[in-house]
Amino acid sequence: MSKSNRPEPAATAVQDEAMAVARGIQKPGQTKEQTRLIAQGIAKGIEQYKRQQSAKARERDKARKRLDKQRHQAAAGHGAPLHEDAEDGLASGSDPVMALRVAAWLFTLMALLHGLRLLAGWPVVIAGWNVPAWLSGLAVPLLATLAFWLFRGARRLC
Prior knowledge:
Layout (H helix, E strand, L loop, with lengths): L8 H16 L7 H44 L20 H25 L4 E2 L2 E2 L2 H25 L1
Antiparallel strand pairs: 1-2
Helix pairs in contact: 1-2, 3-4
């Protein structure tokens, strides 16, 4: 492949932009050569900034791919730990599956306690108000359904 001496369209656009900025900040009595040199400096700064941004974007992409791979391995049962990722704010050790399971167990426990209250006839008084037993009768299927949904959601994430 032979290289031509013509600049690439992107480079020309950067040079044009740099020249426009240099002309915009031009001082009275400044020569064309001085303006051209300032434009070259600005163009170099723009190019350096673009390279830095590209490098940061590549690094973010690599980090995202690493995290995706770790999540995939963890879901496959390899147990690879999740590490902190600046993009989505996951702290080290946070596990959404574990959070769903804990919540599901809490709802299960509450459903069981309401069921026991119904069977044993335990009275419940809140701030002087006797809570009727039928309220626990409504709570049992509601809490059991919520627990079921959470367990199922945790299983789907695995």
